């Protein structure tokens, strides 16, 4: 460890009320977000992680999400404290999770268990539903605004005469009704194999709740499918194993499949537009991924195999 510091705690666990002493070590910047991870240790030698999001509202949001997720009984890093890293910057302290990313060591049985864990998260997390309504998701207005802006924007893949616009138009009515009929659940909102740490016994832990949101259950499933398409793992059994863990003995209905297709394309379109507007160096990758998503939808795998 490079140095030891004492931090004031804003929202601590009972044993860390007031202050927490930590030895600070390696620092790692998280791609895309600008957040920083600092590996650290308590006085007793327990490994912990300090996460510094760019903005304080992001730190508060993730701290709340991590605590909600832990309350459901699924395996997540233990929330230890929300701290003043500096007088003007908040940070989250949580337990360090030993293991390998599932992305580096794919395993079909673990993927089934991840599906079960996400189902448990969706069923047991207590949320108010306020953001679901205030964001316009419950009335479909949130999604409609995006689709309208893309159709009249400059990204050719998303414009009104594009393949994207045509397919979204075919899926919109079912999704509109779906949002109006369903209650939201707690969503991780960026579920991919890099967010899953597997210990030596094969037990998965879900990390990084910075993007959690109130959404329908199909949003998390759509995100997981999107990342499998992006990393060229969609034609393996990864998704069907994950889905079998989530659905247990049930199957997706045709309406579920239509709405899953909507989420997959909406998630990809939003990412593509994000990189397009920022003239990002990641734009070529986002365009390639978007083409993969369109091809995946047009070969009707969702309707045939899921």
Automatic annotation (TrEMBL):
Residues annotated as transmembrane: none
Ranges of residues in domain Aminoglycoside phosphotransferase: 58-232
Lineage: superkingdom: Bacteria
InterPro entries: Aminoglycoside_PTrfase, Kinase-like_dom_sf
Name of the featured protein: Aminoglycoside phosphotransferase domain-containing protein
Organism: Candidatus Woesebacteria bacterium RIFCSPLOWO2_01_FULL_44_14
Lineage: Bacteria, Candidatus Woeseibacteriota
